Amino acid sequence: MAKKLIQRLSDISNIHHRAAFTDVLKHTAPKPSQFLSLARERYSCRSFDGRTVPDELIESILEAARLAPTAMDKQPVHVWVVRTEEALEKLGKATQYLYDSKLVFMVGCNPSEAWVRKYDGKNGAEVDAAIVGTHIMMEAADLGLGSVWVGSFNPAVIAAEFPELAGWEVVALFPIGYPAGGPSPRHSERKNIEELASEL
Length: 200
Prior knowledge:
Blueprint: H1 2-19, H2 24-28, H3 34-41, H4 55-66, E1 77-82, H5 85-92, E2 104-109, H6 125-142, E3 146-147, H7 155-161, E4 169-177, H8 193-196
Antiparallel strand pairs: 1-2, 2-4, 3-4
Helix pairs in contact: 4-6
């Protein structure tokens, strides 16, 4: 009898809470978006396990690059997939930061095809390439792959080794593969919101 009474009182209490909307926040608080979860998990990968990335994943990454927004939708950008032993050896002459990856996405831009800001002549090609590169990294992360943005390379060596890139400026290299290690200790170091953003 006492057990039934306690149960009834508990039920009444729950009904009261719901009637008073005291638990609304618990049930309506926004959950982190899938993108924010992905952004937190993604890190600069500098160690790969050597496994070959399947063609279908490469195609998915290229589609993410194709869908990236660019100024006036001009898309003054090109992506080169570097994965043959010969091409990787040539690219390795321009940088020491391929981290033994067997797959590198090389992103370049053509300023002559880009939107230009009329007020000061600012050319948007490099920004467009950076947006494409970010799409590449985020799609790679969503597919369970590691990536790293490499900006330290010798453009003159790339131009000499890859004459087919004439007319393009290489903006960044993206070694990609299956991670063999975790993030660096600095990965979680971020400015707080008060330092990063403000309202005008």
